[in-house]
Amino acid sequence: MTSSVPVIGQLNLVVRDMAATVAFFRSLGLAVEESDEPQWRAWRAHHVRVTMPSGCRLELDSAAFAKQWNPGFKGQPGNAGCVLFFSVAARNDVDRLFQLAAGAGYGTQKAPEDAFWGARYAIVEDPDGNAIGFMSPIDPARRRAPPPPPR
């Protein structure tokens, strides 16, 4: 019998204001799925899905719904202690998306920078303050020595 290696297929982000968060992700060009079927309209405030081209799903949930499907949920929306990075096709996409988010009034954490590992990246904040990053493909020709490690 063989076992498979786990693969990330879904990330759930618990949010305070679904409409504001949906607007944020739509402003980045992501397709947020919302059903117009009557039995699902009331759910729009509690759950929506964003399916990435890779097939991975970003599920946006209200805290009330998160507590329903995960009775052990102890957190609050926002500042989850992680950065949700989106891969982009080109280095200039990092700058474009950073400027788009900053220009729309969203918080920023890290202006676009060419990283020592060869990618360009930036970090903004969604309406709840969650860190949302954009990273270009790694260009081996742009790699350089890393800085000293943290002490």
Task: Characterise the protein shown here.
By secondary structure, this protein is of the alpha/beta class. It has a single domain (10-140), classed as 2,3-Dihydroxybiphenyl 1,2-Dioxygenase, domain 1 (Roll), CATH 3.10.180. The protein is 23% helix and 28% strand. Strands 1-4-3-2 form a four-stranded mixed β-sheet. A four-stranded mixed β-sheet has the order 5-8-7-6, with helices on one face. Strand 7 (120-125) and strand 8 form a beta hairpin.
C-alpha-based Rg, rounded = 17 Å
Class derived from helix and strand content: alpha/beta
- Strand fraction equals 25-35%
- CATH fold name: 2,3-Dihydroxybiphenyl 1,2-Dioxygenase, domain 1
Regions with pLDDT < 50 over 5+ consecutive residues? Answer: none
Order of helices and strands: EHEHEEHEHEEE
Give the overall average pLDDT.
Answer: 89
Overall outline:
globular
Span between N and C termini? Answer: 45 Å
Bin the helical content.
10-25%
Assembly type of the shown chains? single chain
Summarize the biggest pleated sheet.
4 strands, mixed
**Major sheet strand order:** 1-4-3-2
**What CATH architecture would you give?**
Roll
Number of strands: 8
